[in-house]
Automatic annotation (TrEMBL):
Residues 24-89 form the RNA polymerase sigma-70 region domain. It comes from Paraflavitalea soli. GO terms for biological process: DNA-templated transcription initiation. The lineage of its organism: Bacteria, Pseudomonadati, Bacteroidota, Chitinophagia, Chitinophagales. This is RNA polymerase sigma factor. It comes from the Bacteria.
């Protein structure tokens, strides 16, 4: 379907056409679900967010803006809803993909996204097992450097150790991870 279809349905929705709401829902559901899976990694949260967005659209149909790009509007509302759901759960969004390409869904199917999620979860489990081979201090250094993306200098300041110690400790940690990886 084209963006002109979304635009026409959006206009009809603003005029109170309930069928237009359902058509918009059906037209955008798969893309929103796929985007939500990449954003949050949760099928339930993604489906909840989709339903909440469309319920809010219907409730506020007469106040909706005249959007030139209703799909972008939907994706923005959806992302904000997923963020609020995750915040209420005390979680952060950790996208499975590194970027969201301006809210445009990838060309992969929902099934491919599920497979990517499963592979991602397996990778997380394997990484956790590998990190178990390190001391607590080594784990802390690896997390600061590679997960929080802190510089060596900032790590040294934070832990009150020399930059050289940070370099050497991270180097030794990586060697230990490689050794543990080779054993698996």
């Amino acid at each position: 379907m084209t963006s002109s279809t979304n635009t026409a349905l959006w206009s009809q929705l603003r005029n109170g056409d309930e069928k237009a709401l359902y058509a918009l829902y059906q037209l955008n559901y798969d893309d929103l679900l796929q985007y939500g899976l990449r954003l949050s990694g949760s099928v339930g949260d993604s489906k909840d967010a989709i339903n909440l967005v469309f319920a809010a659209l219907w409730a506020n149909r007469h106040q909706l803006p005249d959007a030139n790009h209703p799909k972008a509007y939907l994706f923005t509302c959806f992302k904000n809803r997923v963020l609020r759901i995750k915040q209420r759960q005390g979680q952060k969004l950790i996208p499975i993909h590194s970027s969201t390409e301006d809210y445009l869904p990838a060309t992969s199917s929902v099934e491919e996204t599920f497979i990517e999620m499963q592979e991602y979860e397996l990778l997380q489990q394997r990484t956790a097992r590998l990190l178990d081979h390190l001391t607590e201090r080594q784990q802390e250094l690896i997390k600061l450097r590679f997960l929080e993306e802190m510089s060596y200098e900032n790590i040294a300041l934070r832990l009150n150790i020399s930059v050289r110690t940070v370099y050497n400790s991270i180097h030794e940690s990586i060697k230990a991870l490689k050794k543990a990886f080779d054993k698996q």
